[in-house]
Amino acid sequence: MPRPITRGLGWLRAQPRTTRFVISAGLPLGFVTFGLGLWLDSIDWWSRHAYLLNVVSGLTGVCFGVPFAVVGLDYLNRAQEEARQAERARARIGAQVIEFRSSLLTASPGRNLADLITTAEALRNQINDIRLMHDDDPARSDAIATVIAGFDRLMPSRGGHPRTSPEAFVLRSGDLSFMMRWRTQVKTRWEAFYVGGRPELAEGWLADDTEIAAHHAVEQVMSNNRHPWKGLRGISERAWLDHLRYFLEDLIALCRAGQALEVYV
Q1: Three-state SS for 131?
Q2: Rounded to whole angstroms, how far apart are CA atoms 193 and 196?
Q3: Is residue 90 scored above 90 in pLDDT?
């Protein structure tokens, strides 16, 4: 059976009983009255039955017109309902995106995502430059101090005390617990959008590289060896810088995703 006919029969079976009756009875009856009218016209029968001609003509019009009107109205209703569903989905997705973007900024008060990305990228580049220095380079200590000061401005200590060394990250014990809560909040908001909102997006989703980087960042941010809040416990200063760099890279990936999702806000 041709596919359009199959789809048409499937659509008809899904309609209410009254609609099925109108279409199933109206169209065959319309063809019958149309054929009858042509035959009676060929034998010049209508010339002696003008009133009956009007009745049959009207009945034929109703038999064809009502089913087509029902189909047309159903199409319009479905189109309007789909538009309403798309609007509701977009509003829901927009709210989820706002929550995700807001969660990223809770550790950096007074900043926006673009500022966060720019600052984090600059700090990461500074760390890359330090990694090329020898351990006995006299400029190395000042460079590390500059990175720590810049990170302190990016994500201030919860107590407001400036950090001046890797060990200062450990001394502020409340910072680590706050950042773990931050991680949980970011991950929860991302998953609410990624799992709940993404399937509803027909187009306009993140670019592949942005999506992959953000998804990996959500899974690994603040995990072991990917954040600086453990200080120099059992590791070298060079390794601690790597941990800070990993955190910045995860933060940049998350913020880029949040920035790209701005179209839904």
Answers
A1: helix
A2: 5
A3: no
Cα pseudo-dihedral 36, 41, 46, 50, rounded to 10: 90
> What angle is formed at CA 117 by the lines to CA 115 and CA 121, rounded to 5 degrees?
120
pTM of the model: 0.71
Question: Residue 174: what pLDDT?
Answer: 85
Structural tokens at position 63? 């038999």
Identity at 228, one-letter amino acid code: P
Both tokens of 87, joined, read 């609007």
How far, in Å, CA of 48 to CA of 148, rounded?
104
Q: 3-state SS of 177-208? A: HHHHHHHHHHHHHHHHHHHHCHHHCCCCCCCH
19 Cβ contact list (under 8 Å, min separation 6): 70, 74
